[in-house]
Design a protein that fits this description.
By secondary structure, this protein is an alpha+beta fold. It has one domain. The protein has 4 helices and 8 strands. The strands form 2 sheets. It has a 6-stranded antiparallel β-sheet. Strands 1-2 form a two-stranded parallel ribbon. A hairpin with a 2-residue loop joins β4 and β5. α2 packs across α4. It starts with 11 loop residues before the first strand and ends in a 15-residue tail after the last helix.
Length: 168
Amino acid sequence: LGAARWRGRAWICCRIDFRDRKREVMGAGYTEIFFLDEATALAAGHRPCFECRRADAQAFAAAWARARDLARPPKAPEMDRILHAERRATFETCRLRDLPDGSIFATGGGFRLKLDHEIHAWDFDGYRPVETETDPDGAVAAVTPPAVRAALSAGYRPRLHPSARLRS
């Protein structure tokens, strides 16, 4: 890997397969990064791709517009500018109850997903329900950027790893 941390502001979450395209991993142009699911990609400051995930990208942009009371959904570069700034910021501390479903947050015990008022421990292999009681008024470090959390609050629903839907 080179010294550059990024070359552009457009960090997108794509489908693995699209129109029979085959890309060389770590090839020229841009680097593919593989995430557990979309909630994880959103937490890293990525947004849905307007080419291979058009319907999801349009839904995300519409939720973004609702959250900001915009007259029209924003263009990708508008969202990318904000997401780029938020990716570079430190995690925001907030109350757990204030995080929308689909948000990733950090605690002393690792990373967690908030979903349907339940907390799931994040792991490279999937999610697992958290056994201990979590204080809804407790302070957590929000990993998911503020603009993405706003879109989640306005109704965007990320695609989740199947383990997020499993109950203990």
